[in-house]
Amino acid sequence: MKRRSWLHLLSGLVLRHGWPLLLLPLAACATLPDVSYLRDEELIPRNRPQIADGQGTLPAGKSQALLSRLKAQVDPTAILTRHIKAEEAISNKPLVAGNKVTLLDDGPQTMRAMLAAIREARRHIHLETYIFEDDEVGRALADLLIRKHAEGVQVSVIYDSVGTLDTPREFFERLRAAGIGLLEFNPVNPMRAHDDWEINQRDHRKILIVDGRIAFTGGVNISRVYGKSALLGSKSGKPPKDPKQAVWRDTHMQIEGPAVGEIQKLFLETWRLKTGTALPDADFFPPLKPQGQALVRAIGSIAEKEDYTIYKTYISAFANASNYIHLTTAYFSPDRQVVDALIDAAHRGVDVQIVFPSFSDNSFMVYASRSYYQELLDAGIRVYERQGAMLHAKTAVIDDVWSTIGSTNIDIRSFLHNDEVNAVVLDIGFARQMEALFQRDVRESVEVSRERWAQRGVTERLREWGVRMFNYWL
Known about the structure:
By secondary structure, the chain is of the alpha/beta class. It has 15 helices and 22 strands. The protein starts with 5 loop residues before the first helix and ends in a 6-residue tail after the last helix.
């Protein structure tokens, strides 16, 4: 399974279809917004944070009670307020109260949880994925979806055309013939496009919503690479020549409670935008009672709308960190503002640590990430490379209160050209689970010291420099 960078995509199209490399300049016109204002200490959001539940915006008294309960668990108390105000300043999406959030820390656990939820479906199943492979994992899921549709459950699937380049069309035709609703996102073949052809705009989301009551999101695609647990990885193990044969280390999450409705809206909006019609209503938004205590903000970026909310959320979270930023990233090729936000945090005494992959399904991205190591290390940021497994997770935990899991990589492609989804969770207990997972990855990693990095060879430095020149297209 390959991460489909623009360079990979073009080379594949040229080899398969003889398309000209003149397509390359089409991707070179967009830029990310200036977000320097997010580091402004005088930035003041709404007077009172907007918090909602399944019935709508909470009264001021209830909102304040929720914040007070969380503040009591945080030391210093100002940390939580700071992150909530930062969230409010950049997003029109509410913090949604009353959610139970379950951390799914590897592929097999994620697949078991999603299949179990699908088996219990009674009304509708909405699946949105970048990759849907025709392998034992993909076929098992396809068989289950077909069976649920036969039982009277409405099933709708959005899959990305580039992410499924290696999946035979017959695989999807079987689903369509069974009556399942299918949307191929931005087809590579322009003759199959539903609207304007945007080859560089991809749907990189991973979403599953069952009956409008339970949702899943994170970094896990539908593929056999998630058939083994990352706990089986080993520091001493050498990476396989074919990354598909490696154990993949990824992170997903399960959400129950009122925030599920916000993720449902993201799926339905994509369907409507790309087909021009809404799905037949099948009680997509049932009343949702509180299931837990977590505050959740579901954030979906839409490249077509130049929506940069996830990008701004990361910058703001880094800029407002007080104690630590612990970041796990599969692909790291950001713009200058992301790097500066991390370095600024380190300079003001925040403990910044980043876990990178030691090998990847995209060799370009390994060198792209490493091209930033020197300035990160010089700023005092601790850098690790995960051993024994192919790191594919996209997560962050900050200050024992702010966490995020999603599909978004810390790179220009994710922020600028992809439709992505992340869930931000404000909950002490969940943040502690995320921190424990981060520390587990650190234990399975090798730290990159300034001394070690200074000893790398000329060939490695040239590779980093060469790939860095093309970071926009990775």
